[in-house]
Specification:
alpha/beta; 5 helices; DUF5615 domain-containing protein; DUF5615
C-alpha cells in the first residue's frame, strides 16, 4: 500500500493533483488548516498523521538533520529543490518512492529527489 503523503505549503498544487490522479492519498497543509504552522510544527503534524512530508523548503532539511542528530523520530522527509525537476518528473519520482517504500523503512530519513 502506498505511503500517505503530506504536502508542505510551498509545493505546487499540480504535484498534489498529479499524485492524486495516480491514486495516492495526498493531504496538503492548506487542506489540513496547517498552512501557518512553523516548519518544526509541520513536521510534527505529518508525523502525528503517519504521513511522509514532501517539501521544497531548505529549512526543513536543517530541521530534519537536527532531529536525526538528536535521535528524535519523524516519519521522514521527501525533498526536491524547487529548480531540480519539472512537475512531471517530480510526480513520477514521488509516485515511485511512495509505492515501493514503507514508513518503517524511511522513518527518520531524508530522501532527495530527483532520483536520477
Amino acid at each position: 500500500m502506498p505511503i500517505p503523503v503530506y504536502m508542505d505549503v510551498h509545493v505546487p498544487s499540480a504535484v498534489s493533483e498529479g499524485l492524486r490522479r495516480l491514486g495516492h492519498d495526498v493531504l496538503t497543509a492548506q487542506a489540513d488548516g496547517a498552512d501557518r504552522l512553523t516548519d518544526d510544527a509541520l513536521l510534527d503534524r505529518a508525523t502525528e498523521l503517519g504521513r511522509m512530508l514532501f517539501t521544497q523548503d531548505d529549512d526543513l532539511l536543517r530541521i530534519a538533520a537536527g532531529r536525526q542528530s538528536s535521535g528524535q523520530t519523524f516519519t521522514g522527509v521527501l525533498y526536491a529543490h524547487q529548480l531540480a525537476a519539472g512537475i512531471g518528473p517530480l510526480v513520477n519520482d514521488l509516485d515511485l518512492v511512495l509505492q515501493v517504500c514503507d514508513l518503517r523503512e524511511i522513518a527518520g530519513r531524508v530522501t532527495h529527489l530527483p532520483l536520477r
